[in-house]
Amino acid sequence: MAASRERLQRIHADWQQPLDVPHLASEAGMSVPRFHLHFKSVTQTSPIQYLKSLRLHQARLMMIRDNLTAAGAAARVGYESDSQFNREFKRMFGRTPADEARMMKRAFALLPPEQLSARLQAH
Length: 123
Fold this sequence. Notes:
mainly alpha, 75% helix, elongated
């Protein structure tokens, strides 16, 4: 369990870096098949799917919080192909990146920084 926890911490700390399963397995002192099984027993998903999910969630956050376009967020989380990012994003969240960002902003009523500053100064 400690090896998986350490690999999870590494993935969360270094998700923007190129990470691959053989390297993570080596760091954990395991073979690739053993690491894969151990990781999946802890997370209920494969290491690659876990990393992909983390990156897609980070991209969604960037589009909402930083007002990035899908292409900008995709590049920041390591996608080289916009079409691959859009496909995987829609598969995960059920909406296109633009639709998801719009829905999330509306749901959380996030104001642009200048409007938020103006409202805070008025009170």
